[in-house]
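User: Here's a chain of 338 residues. Predict its fold as tokens.
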Amino acid sequence: MNSRRTFLKLSTGLLLGTTLRPFQSFAKTITPMRYVERAAFAMGSIVTFKAYCGDEARCNLAIDEAISEMKSVDRLMSVFDEQSQLSAVNNRAFDKELVVDTRIIEVLQSAKKYSALTGGAFDITVEPLMELYGFRDDKSIHHFPTDKQIAITLDAVGMRNVAVDASRSTVNLRYAQTKLDLGGIAVGFAIDRAITILKEHGIESALVNHSGDIYALGAPPDEEAWEVGIVDPMEPENIITSVTIRDQALSTSGNYENSIEADGGSIGHILDPASGRTASKILSSTVIAPTASGADALSTGMFVLGIDKSRNIIRQSDAIRCIAVIRDGGRETILDLA
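Assistant: Prediction complete.
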């Protein structure tokens, strides 16, 4: 469902944020915990659950409920499903209020927060631009839009065009051509919901990975953290570096994930809401944050912003870390912006 995730990514997506191994500690205590690993198709890609718990049946029940919740979020928020509530918003919420599920309200409120934090670099109203460039059609031949087409389309882009009333659970789009794409935050939101369910079932050690959007709950028995690999944006089949996380989320954004060919060139799917053009300041951005929805949104926002502006955001919070890959001459350089 995510605009950053297509069918083609299924062949490489599991590399992005791939769990390498638990981060080793000096503890060697043998524990009675059972290891459960499950995978399912949800929200356009494969989601994997790795969990440790004393009761295997209870662990499987928790994972079943978590998968069910992720699929429920997809049914609500898929931009590709004409029956989703998000599609209803895009088609019918102009100039009137539409009542929606409270989970959509929660995501919209989070999106507004992260849009403000990134100065508009993360923006869920980019859907008109996605349509303009051809990311929503099945054509084999695409063309770069003209400056005039981009300028006209940009009138529909911006969180100023989205009104949310949480008390009445309503959404109103204030510009006729405005449409929403929750692809940059909905998967993270669904992972956060899944983690809440695991916690409610008493699970304290688990890792949920949806094609590179990850939350690490606790750590494996007798270990300190989970080690997670970050994909090489120039060679997506390889891992460029790794990090360790515990009770944190991680998400990576890059235009290598999804692009279309047009007029002999390539158009990356992460678009700058300010210019209406493909963001290209860096090769990839990986954000570690307290929540999966935050990591999801900020990895996109910081990819658009580039190094200097992303550093300014990170200075405002000790809980956010960004690892950027840039092109330095003819080679890649990894920058830790923590």
